[in-house]
Fold:
Amino acid sequence: MSAERKRSLTIAGHRTSVSLEEPFWDALKDIAAAEGVAVAALIAEIDSRRETVNLSSALRLHVLEHYKRQAEGG
Structure:
């Protein structure tokens, strides 16, 4: 398993850092490209919809849900 990698980005006008394993960063890049948006824009959208989990967890869950939908044919 790869180690977490921390990246800094701006969400809703404020700087923050997010730590994710490299495969999750790669998946977010792929998802963003498929949706025609920047990775930062995708992360901002996910951030705006999360409720009680931290941002890193919300990003991992988004990636999981994305690939689950794909596997189910949707």
